[in-house]
Specification:
This protein is an all-alpha fold. The protein is 73% helix and 0% strand. Helix 3 packs antiparallel against helix 4.
Amino acid sequence: MSVRILTGVACGFLLMTVAACETVPLDAPLQVSGVAGESFANDEAQCRAEASRIGQGHIGKTAAIGGAGGAIVGATESGDKALAGALIGAAVGAAVGDIEVKQAQRNYLVQCMQQRGHPVIG
């Protein structure tokens, strides 16, 4: 495998690791800066259900884009490396897509709760 592909893979995994460290999962407890009201639990359940629908199909799209990019980089080296680049690119793309979806879901949950008047900070 070429140095260019390996460098790209290493950079991709480094970026995923940094982003994953900052990503709070959707099912993690909410942080509040005050007293939760009576409707907190009901609103939280509704907001979590809505947030879980965010990003459906996004992971597959980013995997396809990553795979295409990896194939192009690999093809500049040789035909054999195009397949390896596509596979690596697809894996990195899927992982990046997963992180993006998790961040979007969590952001939606927090904003949904804030819009319903709850003192949620994260």
